[in-house]
Amino acid sequence: MTRLSAITPSGHAHIGNHLGAISRWASQGRPGDLYFVSDLHAMTVSYNPARLRVLSRELLAVLVASGIAPEQVFVQSDLVRELGALSWVLECTCSYGEAARMTQFKQKSTESGEPMNSVRLGLLTYPVLMAADILLQGASEVPVGDDQAQHVELARSLARRFNSTYGEVFTVPSAVMPPTTARVRDLADPTRKMSKSTQDTIGSVFILDEPDLIRRKIRRAVTDGSDRVAYSPEDQPGLANLLEILSACTGTPPRDFTFGSYGEVKEAVAEAVIEELRPIRKGALDLLADQGELDRIRKAGAERAAERGAHRLTSALRLAGVA
Ligand code: AQP
C-alpha cells in the first residue's frame, strides 16, 4: 500500500506546512509512503523560473531535514519525460467536460483575474498531470483535503477507464482524509490561512526564517482590541491562531494556557516556534550548503521513482498502441 503526498514550491515552506503536513509525514508516515516536490504544478500560474528552481531545491532539503527518509522523496520534474508521456495518454482518456468541471479550475481561473482566453491550458489539464503522478507511482492512497478530493476522483475514473478500455495497468487510487490539524492563519490577517504564495510575507513564518525575523513577525502579529487573554477563535482569531501554534509546538491544549498579556503570549510563541524549527532549519541549511549531498539525494530519488513507474508506463504505452 503506497500513500503519495506532494508539496508545491509556490513559495517558501511555512510553519503551517510544517505543523499541518511535513512534521506528520515525518513522524507518522509508513516506510512505503512517498513524498514529492510538485514543481511542475507550480507552472500553472505566472512564476519565475530561476526562483522555482531555488524553491524546489530548498523544499527537498526541508523535507529531508524534517526527518523524511531520503528514499521516500523525489522532485516531480526529474520525471518530466515519464510524466509527460503518461499525461498525454491520460489526456486522451479524459474528456474536456471532465477537466472543465473541476471546481479548483473554475475557482483559480476566476481568481487569476485574467480573461478565460489567457488562462494557462496547464491550469485546466493539471489534474490530469496529478493523475499521472499518482498512477505512475502505483499509489493506492492519496491523502488530500476537500479541495483536492475531486482530482483524486478524476484519477480513479481515468485509471478505471484505461484499465477497462486498453488493459489492466493501473492501481485505482483512493482519496484518504488526512488527520485534521489546525489551519495556521496568516499572522497579519487571521481571516486568511498562512500561505506560501502570499505577496506580503510579514504574516508568514517560513521554516528557514532566522530566529530574529521569527521574533519580529510574531511580535507584529495582529491580536485583537480587547486585552483579555483567552482562547476564543470566533471573537479573537488572531490570538487564537497564536495559541494554536503554541499548542501544536508544545502539546498543551490551547485553552490551558494562562498568560497575563499579549506580550507574554507572543514571547512564548516566538520561542516555541524557534525551538520547533531549529533542527530543521539547521539540517536544511547544511544540506543546501553541501551541494553534492543534496544532488545525490535528488538523483537517487529520481532514479527510484522512475524505476517504480517504468513498467506501468511501458505497459500503458504498449496497450495504447504507441510503443
Ligand atoms: N496554513 C496552513 N496550515 C496548516 N496546513 C497547511 N498546509 C498548507 N497551508 C497550511 C498544508 O501543507 C501541505 C502543502 O500543500 P500544498 O503545497 O498543496 O499547499 P497548499 O495547501 O496549496 O497551501 P500553501 O502551502 O500555503 O501554498 P499556496 O500558497 O500555493 O496555496 C498540505 O497538506 C496543506 O494542507
UniProtKB/TrEMBL annotation:
<keyword id="KW-0067">ATP-binding</keyword>
<dbReference type="InterPro" id="IPR002306">
    <property type="entry name" value="Trp-tRNA-ligase"/>
</dbReference>
<comment type="similarity">
    <text>Belongs to the class-I aminoacyl-tRNA synthetase family.</text>
</comment>
<dbReference type="InterPro" id="IPR014729">
    <property type="entry name" value="Rossmann-like_a/b/a_fold"/>
</dbReference>
<keyword id="KW-0547">Nucleotide-binding</keyword>
<keyword id="KW-0436">Ligase</keyword>
<dbReference type="Pfam" id="PF00579">
    <property type="entry name" value="tRNA-synt_1b"/>
</dbReference>
<dbReference type="InterPro" id="IPR002305">
    <property type="entry name" value="aa-tRNA-synth_Ic"/>
</dbReference>
<dbReference type="GO" id="GO:0004830">
    <property type="term" value="F:tryptophan-tRNA ligase activity"/>
</dbReference>
<keyword id="KW-0648">Protein biosynthesis</keyword>
<protein>
    <recommendedName>
        <fullName>Tryptophan--tRNA ligase</fullName>
        <ecNumber>6.1.1.2</ecNumber>
    </recommendedName>
</protein>
<dbReference type="InterPro" id="IPR050203">
    <property type="entry name" value="Trp-tRNA_synthetase"/>
</dbReference>
<keyword id="KW-0030">Aminoacyl-tRNA synthetase</keyword>
